[in-house]
Amino acid sequence: MNNLFDMTKKELQTFLVAQGMKKFRADQIFHYVYKENIFSWDEMVLLPKKDRQLLKDVLPIHFPEIVSRLDAPDGQTVKLLLQLADGETVETVLMMHDYGNSICVSSQVGCAVNCAFCASAKNGFVRNLSAGEMVAQLLAFRKYVTPELHSIVIMGTGEPLLNYDNVIRFMKLIHDKDTLYLGYRNMTLSTSGIVPKMYDLAKEGMPITLAVSLHAPNDALRRRIMPIAEKYPLEAVLQAARHYFDVTGRKVTFEYILIKGLTCTNACAKELARLLGGQNILVNAIPINDNYDVGLYRPDEKTMNEFVTYLQRHGVPVTLRREMGSKIQAACGQLRIKREKI
After folding, report:
1. Of the N and C termini of the chain, which has fewer Cβ atoms inside 10 Å?
2. CATH number at residue 293
3. Considering the entire predicted model, what is its pTM?
4. How do residues 224-264 score in pLDDT, each as one tens digit?
5. Structural domain of residue 178, as residue ranges?
6. Do residue 90 and residue 130 come from a single domain?
7. Residue 104 annotated as part of some ligand binding site
8. Residue ranges in the chain modelled with pLDDT below 70
9. From the CA atom positions of the chain, what is the Rg in Å?
10. Is residue 268 marked as binding?
11. Is 214 annotated as a binding residue?
12. Are 115 and 261 within one domain?
């Protein structure tokens, strides 16, 4: 089935001409969708009535419906659980920063990677999202919350590099001047370390930020919390990250989750400093959102600050991520799981 949000303007032009419509109608449709946030054929009144009726039949607009909306008490985070055309649900989160609004996009329904600290895979992998279904997550916030968008992070449910073609198409679509015209440098893709696809990504000529889920300073601990590490050892992941930097010139971010009694220890800090000290990278230390579904919890403030300070003193550029959304179950997969339990 054709999906309007999957199409470039050129593809839409070709489609319309094949239906006997004028090519220039694609300009009007894209203006309605991406500039005026109109997602109904009936409301696109510049189109002839007969064209609108035909488009309802041959190109129905399946705009996601809100199943659940959670707003953080501070007003800076909004999480939506969206229902797609086939009834599956997907989560997406808007985070309001000083520099602008950032949307966390999901790339799959469910996840096959099955990290111990993440709820996304608890009910298994269902399917990949199309590029249009990822675009629709951004459009949902434009319709229901705010049209203002500074950046996107593909860090929601799913492993983006296991849905490689659709994710690449998604980023190219929203970069296009006829759609959202979002700069590649305002896009971040997070991967658990799918090494072959990291090399492929370096060839794309898209200067996005690559964020690699490191989460442990050695293979033994990483395998314990990230089963994907059995297939892609730590050194292979680090080598692919170095290659990405060499090819693109874009500094790689390493995400490191802080879990009480597991990854946020003195021993881990020392090992991580030996592994990454002095390199042109950035470590993003992420306090886990207390996740009762998977039984892992956030360290106390003192322990986290000591961990970060040790790394900084030993030549590791590191930031402690500002927590957003912990009050509204913003960790990946939590809201979807909660609904499926009902």
Report:
1. C
2. 3.20.20.70
3. 0.91
4. 999 999 999 999 999 999 999 999 999 999 999 999 999 99
5. 65-341
6. yes
7. no
8. 121, 292-294, 322-342
9. 21
10. no
11. yes
12. yes
